[in-house]
Amino acid sequence: MRKNSIKNTRINGEVKKELSNLISREIKDPRIHPMTSVVDVEVAPDLKTAKVYISVMGDEKAKKETYQGLKSAASFMRGQLARNLNLRNTPELIFIIDNSIEYGINISKLIDEVNLKSSQNDNENDDEDMDEDLDDDLDDEDSDDVTDDDTDDDVL
Question: CA-CA to 119 of 20 to 30 Å: which in 47, 55, 88, 100?
Fold first, then answer.
């Protein structure tokens, strides 16, 4: 079985779904942070190992504790996988902390800050432009009056 085959993709999805359910509902370890999610699962083509990418929302201490809790519950989860999925071999679970969700949230916050500053600058510039436009309009009206008077004098 190739790494990117349809069968392997399907197995990855099933293992991911099952592990997500196990982590959120069945594991009662207090070290595992409640905001833990399975980002991705890569099962080896020979079904011997599975890399499980985990994202934990929290500080470094919460990530380390969650990693230790998952590592200690790996044999339980492997047994549950064997019971719930009908695979020839049940893969050994290797947990990897993934910071991609946290990174994405930080990037999103930075983009929002830039957009907010940009919109504030645009509003300030618009206010300045309005003031300048009003000043220009007033100047134009004053100059129009003067030119009208000048033309009348020239005609007489």
Answer: 100
What is the reported pTM?
Answer: 0.69
The pLDDT tens digits of the residues spanning 71-92 come to 999 999 999 999 999 888 999 9
- Cβ atoms of residues 89 and 1 within 8 Å: no
Q: In DSSP terms, which residues pair with 42 in a beta bridge?
A: 51
Report yes or no on 107 lying in a domain.
Answer: yes
pLDDT at 137: 57
Looking at the structure of the chain, the number of domains it has is 2
In sequence order, what are the beta bridge partners of 43?
50
> What are the residues facing 50 on neighbouring strands?
43, 93
Q: Are residues 89 and 54 in the same domain?
A: yes
Calculated CA dihedral for residues 23, 27, 32, 34, nearest 10 degrees: 60
Query: Does residue 61 fall inside a structural domain?
Result: yes
Q: What are phi and psi of 89, to 5 degrees?
A: -125, 140
Does residue 29 lie within any of the structural domains? Answer: yes
Instruction: Report the alpha-carbon distance of residue 34 to residue 56 in Å, rounded.
Output: 8
Residue 1 lies in a domain: no
Question: Phi and psi at residue 61, in whole multiples of 5°?
Answer: -65, -45
CATH code where residue 87 lies: 3.30.300.20
